[in-house]
Amino acid sequence: MAEAPRVRDVMTTKLVTLCEEDNLEGVAQSMQDFHIRHLPVVDGDRLVGMVTQSDLLRLSMTALGATGVASSIQASIEQRTFVAQIMQRNPPTLTPDTSLAEAARLLLQTRAGALAVVDATGDLVGILSEIDVLRVAVDRL
Question: What pTM did the predictor assign?
Answer without folding.
Answer: 0.84
